[in-house]
Amino acid sequence: MKKRYRFPLKQNIGEPAVPAVVNGETIVRGQLIAFKRENSLGANLFTSVSGVVAEVNEKEIVILANEEQKREFVPLKSEGALDLIEEAGLVGLGGAGFPAYGKLTKPFEKGGMVIANAAECEPILCHNIAAIEKDPGKLIRGLEIVLEIVHASEGVIAIKEKHQRAVQRLKEALKDRTNIRIHLLPDMYPMGEERAVVREVTGNILPVDALPFRADAIVMNAETLCRVQEAVDLRKPLIDKDLTVAGKLKGNENLIQIMEDIPLGISVSDVFEMAGGLAEGYGELIMGGPFTGKRVQLDDPVVKTTGGLIAAECFMKGPEKIGLLVCACGADRERMEELAASMGSQVVGIAYCKQAKEVKGTRKCENPGRCPGQVQKVMELKKAGAQALLISNCTDCSNTVMSCALRMGLPVYHCTDGALRAVNHVLIRRMK
Ligand code: SF4
Question: Is 360 found in the same domain as 384?
């Protein structure tokens, strides 16, 4: 049966892409289907499958895929690394979706550092580390390309110390290089947050509204750099995505799976089918990681920023009245409210961690992962009538919440519980 692939026109920070195909048009894998307006911040969009355009509307392009697909693609046409990265439609694949070329247009005048963010910050997600273990050369080559484009003097690969095999593979591959080093990160959430990575590597904590450039640094996610290598060396547009697929899957044997080069636009349900199918009974379907992912439906498509698909454990029955404590680096207010509703609880109070500052309609943490104290917020929620707390805090702050909430008679639920339970992972509570 022919499958439907959906390509939302807006998969990046900035402007949506403009359709370049019409209904009924026959297209082939790697063909441009929507383009970035000239001089705008946006990203081209290419089809990951060959088939026929079934629908073009203001939000998306739908393609009816041929039953037989080949891996070949229409190659990019540009000359020069930066133009190839721009033409490829590359965006930050760690979840942010900032157009990749947008970070690279202003070279450093002196010095400068490019940091490959290989923190794989979220629990469960592991496709970036698996890719490094398999072929560290791809990431290193992508980093070299970017170093050259921005005239940076140093490359740094930031990776958690616990990923010993990946670290070893990188060390071997970097043996004869002097301009790229490894920086080991502690195993805490949110070590992969952009400003947390800059702080760990450079020692500078940036203000909430500052970009890494202020610390003479550019941060790029590990898979993004691998796709830079493909765009420049293979002329491949961004059409495939590596994923971690996990949770309530049939069989109970392979609860965390890595899937390489999954075609963009494929439906969530088709990806779960490829992983063996969903088990009977599951709760939240999460696109992304357990902390920052979003709730999705089975017919939603995989997009450029999709890193994980997780079928969480069935929702726990919550208390009648619950208080929400929201982190800037964890589940946002909207997802927390969805979770509370699914637990059958009425939200009687919402508090934000005091380091979660509002910046341009979103929240950013002043010092990610370093707890400012949570007692006052917990007391506020208790006073509002909460019988329990649902929190999305980082590991350090969850630890603090645990040390005071229980003493106040408030049980604690965490936004990651359903995902972590589904894969038998230790829950985010007290730090060891
Ligand atoms: S300090 Fe607060 S806002 Fe920052 S990461 Fe921790 S819980 Fe989130």
Answer: yes
How many domains in the chain?
4
Pocket residue to mutate for ligand 1, from 189, 354, 371, 390, most atoms within 8 A of Cβ: 371
Range of the structural domain that residue 24 is part of: 4-65
Q: Which two tokens stand for residue 293?
A: 């992912």
Can you give the pTM of this predicted structure? 0.96
Q: Is residue 74 part of a domain?
A: no
pLDDT digits (tens, 9 = 90+) for 383-403: 999 999 999 999 999 999 999
| Of 250, 252, 249, 248, residue with least CA distance to 314 | 248
Work out the number of other CB atoms within 10 angstroms of the CB of residue 300: 18
Triad 343, 334, 269: Cα angle to 5°: 75
Cα separation, 326 vs 406, in Å, equals 18
Structure tokens at 264: 């963009």
Say if residue 203 is in the same domain as residue 88.
yes
Q: Using the Cα atoms of residue 45, residue 50, residue 53 and residue 54 in order, give the sign of their dihedral.
A: negative
Do 270 and 205 share a domain, yes or no?
A: no
Q: Which of the 8 DSSP states describes residue 41?
A: S
Quote the pLDDT of residue 251. 84
CA gap 210, 316 in Å, rounded: 39
Of 122, 208, 329, 400, which is best to mutate to test ligand 1, by the most ligand atoms within 8 angstroms of its C-beta? 329
Is 432's pLDDT higher than 90? no
| CB-defined site of ligand 1, < 6 Å | 190, 327-329, 353, 355-356, 365, 368-369, 371-372, 393-394, 397
The first and second tokens of residue 140, run together, are: 């290193």
Query: How many residues in the chain?
Result: 432
Residues 221 and 124 in one domain: yes
CATH of the domain at 20: 2.40.50
Residue where one domain finishes, among candidates 214, 234, 254: 234
Rg of the chain's alpha carbons, rounded to an integer? Answer: 22
